[in-house]
Amino acid sequence: MIRTPAGDVAVENIKIGDMVVTWGNRHNTETLREVVWSGSQTVRVRPHLPDDEAGYPVRIVKDAIADGVPYKDMLITAEHCLFFDGKFVPVRMLVNGRSIFYDKSITSYDYYHIETAQHSVIMADGMLSESYLDTGNRRNFHQAGNVVRIGSSPRNWADDAAAPLAVNRDFVEPLFHRIGERAIASGHAPRSEPPIVETNADLHLVTKTGAVLRTMREANGHAFFMIPPGIEEVRIMSRTGRPSDMVGPYVDDRRHLGVLVRSIKLFEGNIARPVTSHLAPDAPAGWHDGGYMPCKEPCRWTDGQATLPLGHRHPTLMGLLCIEIIAGGPYNVEKDNIPQNDTRLTA
Asked: What range(s) does the Hedgehog/Intein (Hint) domain occupy (predicted)?
């Protein structure tokens, strides 16, 4: 329900030319703006993907943020932003599983956007939210009405947003915990069982021929592997997890991370040589750049199947590969069984 001069109106009933109430970011003043575009899209959930990427709508229960905010249960997409303290925050970063959660009973729905000439802070269901900002995905929507909007260039958050986009942990995490504490105090129970997690990375190597090399031993954060003669490249294989799952949704890092590797050495006979290709700017396939790093030393995350060239090998000597693992896990190993249900999303 979108706030208009005539009261709250269902978003699917708002047409091009209608006026909506918007809020000024700096002065908290109300202004009327005209709707210049409205569109809808049908979503079908892809349950094999992580919840925030699968397409499940996010349900924000009545009074989740404050008394009367929202004034009824609110359904929005995971990337849709809410407005807090002068900034927009994607709702996926606030999902606590109690008062804000992915509604997995809904696997197909229609959702609606309205656009004003300038990106705006609007009110939906009593909650400050955002109007549509065309960042290049307008073609994905079915446009309502007979007027076709053409000739507009995609916009961006840095230059065209009504308020800054906040995805930094130091802003979002306190907000996440504040809403979560309110949910617990209000008696909201967890909406689902906690995910099944595994701390064992199942670390192993795979050669180009598909041979699997298991750890010979692990000690003091180091994993040791025997490498047969002639093997000049392996893949470091492991389970993967995302910081947004491992730490919390307030961490805006949704890459699939395997293990965090610092130093690597290959021992052959009485010679030990470092293997450093994983730290190079042009690292082989399967190594991530930057992002969530719990240490400051040179290191890099694998993606669960990172290529590691070993260089020229002695033709007859067995090698001992030592990989220093700084961090990894926990890993989500849960598989959900998703019920099927078609619903229209109009909030």
From this structure: 1-135
DSSP code for 127: E
pLDDT at 341: 40
Q: What is the CA radius of gyration of the chain?
A: 25
Q: How far apart are CA 270 and CA 266, in angstroms?
A: 11
Mean pLDDT for back-to-back runs of 10 residues, the chain (347 residues) = 96 95 80 94 95 97 98 97 96 98 96 94 96 88 63 81 96 98 97 88 96 95 96 96 93 94 94 94 91 76 97 92 94 54 37
Tokens 């706030």, located at residue: 3
**Residue 148: partners with Cβ closer than 8 Å, 6 or more residues away:** none
For residue 300, the cross-strand partners are 261
- Count CB neighbours of 117 within 10 A: 11
Which residues make Cβ contacts (< 8 Å) with residue 21, sequence separation at least 6?
Answer: 3, 4, 5, 30, 31, 32, 122, 123
In this structure, which long-range contacts are made by residues 204-212, counting pairs with CB atoms below 8 Å and at least 24 apart in sequence? 204/237, 204/238, 205/234, 205/235, 205/236, 205/237, 205/321, 206/234, 206/235, 206/237, 206/305, 207/231, 207/233, 207/234, 208/233
In contact, 121 and 23? CB cutoff 8 Å: yes
What is the pLDDT at residue 293?
66
**Distances, alpha carbon 157 to alpha carbons 23, 88, 206, in Å:** 18, 10, 43
pLDDT value of position 107? 96
Beta bridge partners of 20: 33
